[in-house]
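Entry type: protein chain
Record version: 2
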Amino acid sequence: MALTLVPKTGQVLFTTFNALYQGAYQAVEKFYEDYATTMPSNSETQLYHWIAQLPGMREWIGPRQMNNAVLRGYSLTNVVYEDSIALDKFKVKNDQWGAFGPSVTAFGDAVGKWPDQRMAAVVDAGHKTLCVDGQNFFDTDHPVSMSDASRGTFSNMGDGAAYDLRIDPVGAFNLARSAMASFVGDAGQPLGLLADTIMVHPALERYATQVATSEFIPQTFNATGVSGATVVAAAASSNPFKGRVKVIVNPFLTNVAAYVYCSNRPIKPFVWQLREAPVFQALVDPTLPNMFERREFVYGAEAQGAGGYSLPFLCIRLSNGLASAATLATEQSSTVGGS
């Protein structure tokens, strides 16, 4: 018997599809939660006052010594997002609900990936987007002190062969970790930062995995010390980072680069500002205009949020000098073909 379209039927359909949507939405793996601090937002634009340095305890001799914390304004404006699908009412009348289940599930999955897609774009653009100190988030000359230029600068950009995961994965990570450990605060005190995570584009997964899981580090040397001479394997040394580094393979990144960062600090290197989490909505009443004009049940999700940056000394970018994953694939293909 054909289905009679009454308001109750629309509500049953909504309940069924909402369950499918919620199941898929909740099942999505969240990458951004490891490298971004989620901050609530109660207005269109949120202003942040990042402290210029991380406070530290000192021996109390005489009167207290004030840190005179410098606050720098940094604002993020929320952006409104939506995604929608429509179902033909005649297909519903013909009892073809089952045909739409996978579509609604895919819809929930897509909406669930929204924060990761936005945050990956923020990470990708870090080398050309200003942060709290007026420099690009990934830059070679961040001021150590935002109030005293004489304190010098620091870099959270690792570039060149020494920082190339493809050449020496463990060595490149060690350089970045050592650089981060040497960062100091406004008063010259060590910040005590030890990188514990490396996040990479999928094209660099095998190199990052070597850092985290390899038992030994292969050693090679040039037989004669002359460029182009035969490379000979030497005794391997143990990998000091085995089991101590977490690897995040982020499929939403577009830049072929690696990001070494601290994930265990109260503030993470990036910010996910959430004004309104995705809400599943539906126009399922058969008496509504969308049914009369377009014969459609309409489902959608809407949300508000934005991604941004916190403190640049919490993350170091390792650039491999490659424009895209396709470039790396071509390079690797040529190497295999020529071997």
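Comment: The first strand starts at residue 36 and ends at 40.
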